[in-house]
Design a protein that fits this description.
Blueprint lengths: L11 E5 L5 E3 L4 E3 L1 H9 L4 E5 L7 H14 L8 H9 L8 H28 L5 H20 L23 H31 L3
Parallel strand pairs: 1-4
Antiparallel strand pairs: 1-2, 2-3
Helix pairs in contact: 1-2, 4-6
Length: 206
């Protein structure tokens, strides 16, 4: 993260103590998960260390924030089918590819989300055309879930790559896996093209 002068600002250091309390070293005050959630939304970068061992536990704390948010009524972002597919990918041979795909997909969505928000605010004075945004969201979610199904170890209707009844892979799993890699790249390119086209349309460039 950079400040107004363009200088790279180091992330805020948060320490987590044995009593599970979180301490913000920048403000010299204790904070909660809700406070950290607001920092994330405000794009204030931070890292979390175990106060005793010095271990970086940022990932675990961010995951805990997501769990807390998902438990709040009416704020569910993660479909059950997606969660099942994601859990099934732990330990799978394609696990290494998932973080890269998720990072690329979310970065693209975030970038275009900001562009669309600005263009829609300028065009409609803050009155968003919810129908078009909802439709785009459904299209991207469908594309995302289709891509995730290619790597799911569970049986996929329609002939996707899965595992046998005893957990073993079918004899022709390797050819399908190679084909899935090509399909994944194509789907990522298609999603990026879709997002870019939508952003250009909102800017009046298309």
């Amino acid at each position: 993260m950079s400040d107004t002068s363009g200088t790279e600002t180091p992330p805020v250091v948060i320490k987590k103590y044995a009593n599970r309390r979180l301490y913000n070293t920048a403000t010299s005050s204790y904070v909660t998960l809700d406070d950290l959630s607001r920092m994330v939304k405000a794009r204030n970068d931070f890292v979390v260390y175990d106060a005793k061992t010095g271990e970086d536990i940022t990932r675990a704390v961010l995951t805990q924030i997501i769990v807390e948010e998902e438990q709040k009524g009416g704020q569910n972002l993660l479909p059950i089918s997606f969660l099942r597919q994601l859990i099934g990918l732990y330990g799978d041979s394609m696990q290494w590819l998932v973080p890269r795909y998720l990072d690329h997909a979310m970065s693209s969505f975030s970038e275009n989300h900001d562009q669309m928000r600005k263009s829609l605010q300028n065009a409609f004075g803050g009155l968003f055309p919810f129908g078009s945004l909802e439709q785009m969201g459904k299209q991207n979610l469908a594309l995302f879930e289709q891509t995730m199904k290619m790597f799911s170890p569970f049986p996929v209707p329609g002939g996707g790559v899965g595992t046998g009844a005893g957990g073993e892979k079918p004899k022709d799993a390797e050819p399908h896996a190679d084909a899935s890699l090509g399909d994944l790249k194509q789907r990522i390119d298609e999603m990026q093209h879709q997002l870019d086209a939508y952003a250009k349309k909102e800017k009046g460039e298309a």
